[in-house]
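Hey everyone, long-time lurker, first post.

I ran two proteins through the pipeline my lab uses and got sequence/structure pairs for each. Pasting them in order. The first:
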Amino acid sequence: MSASTVAAARPARTLLARLTATLAAALTIGAAAATLEMAPACAATTSNWVMTGWNIHQLDQLSPAVASHFFNTPASYATGPSTTTSPVSDGFTTAGVLVYNSYAQFAADLASHAIAPSYTWVMYDLEYWAATPLAEQQNPAAYMQQFGQLAHAHGLQVIEAPGRDLGLVPGAACPLTRENLDHWYLRCNIPGAAAANADMIVVQDQVNTTNPAEFDYLYTTARTQAQAANPAITADAEVSTTYGTAAQMATAAKSARADGIYLNATTGTLGRASAFLRTMQKAGY
C-alpha cells in the first residue's frame, strides 16, 4: 500500500471507530433504560416488609442475603408478643412491634408499665378467635379507635390488623348478610375504622392469594377507604405461605401495588417464604 493510500485511509478508520463507540454507548444506555422499564413501578411504592421476629431470625439462618435485603432496614418491621424482649435479633435494624390481640390486655399492660420503653410500635390484631375478647370482636370499630387513641396518648405508633373473619362473630355490631367476607369487610368500612386512629393498617388479603384479581380488588378498595379516613395512612397487604405457591404469592403481591407487605409464615413453610422473597427481589423489590 502506498503512503498516499494509507494517509487517505486513516480518517476513514478514525470516523469508523468514532461511529462504533457512539453506537456501543447508545446500546448501553438503551439496555439500561430497558432494565429500568422492566422493573415494575409498584416496586418503588412498596416501602416496608413485616414478619414475625422469630421468622426473620429463621430466614436469616436459611437465606441471609434475602433476610438482610428485606428486613435489615429501619423501614421494615419485626413483630413479637413479649412486652419485655424485643423481637429484633441478629443485629438487624428493623423496627420492633409489640403485638396485641386484646385491647383489654394492652390497656392493662400500659397501666402496669409492663411494656419495655424500647418499643415504639404496637399492633392490634383482632380476629374471630379466643385471643380476642368477644366484646372486642363484636365491635371492632369502637375498640380499634380506643386502641389507637390510647397508644398515641402514650407516644406509641399503631398498626391495626382486623381480620375479615370478624364478620362471622355472633352478635356483631355490623352483622354479615348474604355476602362474602370481603364484601362484609368493605361494606362495614373496617379499613376506614382501622385507619382512623392508626399509622398503618394490614389488609388480611391472604385468602385471595390464588385469585389475583380479587386480591387486588380487596386491597385497593380497602386502601381507598383507609385513606378517606386518614390520608397519611400506610396500607399493607398480607400474603401467607398457607395460601398458594411462592409464585402465586408473588403474583398476588405484585398485583396489589401495596404500600408494604406483611408476610405470614410458619417454621415448616419458611422455604416457601424464602422463595417468595427471592422472586420479589428479582422483580426489583
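...and the second, right after it:
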Amino acid sequence: MAPIVWKNPPVRECAAVAENRRLRLLSFPRPSRMPTALPVLYSFRRCPYAMRARLALVAGGQPCELREVTLKNKPAEMLAASPKGTVPVLVTPEGPVLEQSLDVMLWALRRDDPQRWLQPQAGTLDDMLALVAACDDDFKPQLDRYKYPQRHADGGEPARERGAQFLRSLEARLSASQHLAGTHATLADAALMPFVRQFAMVDAAWFDAQPWPYLQAWLSNWTASDLFARAMHKHAPWKSGEAGVAFPPA
C-alpha cells in the first residue's frame, strides 16, 4: 500500500519537549509477569482526560481497580496519592503514581499494545505526541472558553472559531486516511476524541452543520464503538473502605 501523504504536515514539538516525552514513555517498565496487586485508577466518567486514560486501559486489556470519584468530594486516598486533586490518577503496583492522562495511556500500552496504538501507519510516535500536545496546549483552552463563556472575556463564539481552526486541521488529516495517523486507530485518535466530542456537544446542531464530513464520521464511529462503550460504563461513586470495581468491564 502506498504511504499516505498528509495534506497538512503533522504538528512538531521542539526537540527538548519531544525528548522529554520519549524518555517518559521509555521510563515505564514492561514487567516480566503481572503483579499480584491491581493498579488503582481514580477516575471521573465525564472528564475527557480520564476518558482517554480508560480507553487506553481497555485497548491494552490492562485490568485495574476502578474508583469512580465525584470532583466535589474527592476521597482522601486519592489526595494522599496525588495532592493535585485531578483525575485520572493511577496508583501502580510497581510504585509510581501516574497523575497525567498521557502517562497512563503510555504505561498501559507499553505493557500490551494488541491494537498497535503506539505504532502509527503514517508518521511516528513523536508526531502523535506532538498532535496530542497541540490538542492539550492549544485546543483545550479554546474548548473551555467556548463551553464556559461566562468565565472568560474572550469566550463563546470567538473561542469556538479558534477551536474550529484545529478541527479543520483534523478534517484535512481524516480526508486523507480513516484515522489520524493512518489506516488504523492509534493513541492520537483516542487521546483527541474525548475533547472533540466535548466540543461537539456544546452545540451539536452547529457542529453537525459544519462541512467536516470526515471528522463527523470519525467521531461518530468512535462513540458507537464497543471500546468506547466499555470505557464509559457508569459506576456509583467509590466510598472509602469499599472495594473498587473491576475494570475494564467484561
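Reply from user beta_strand_b:
Welcome! Quick read of the second one: Residues 125-147 form the longest helix (23 residues). The two ends are 36 Å apart (CA to CA).
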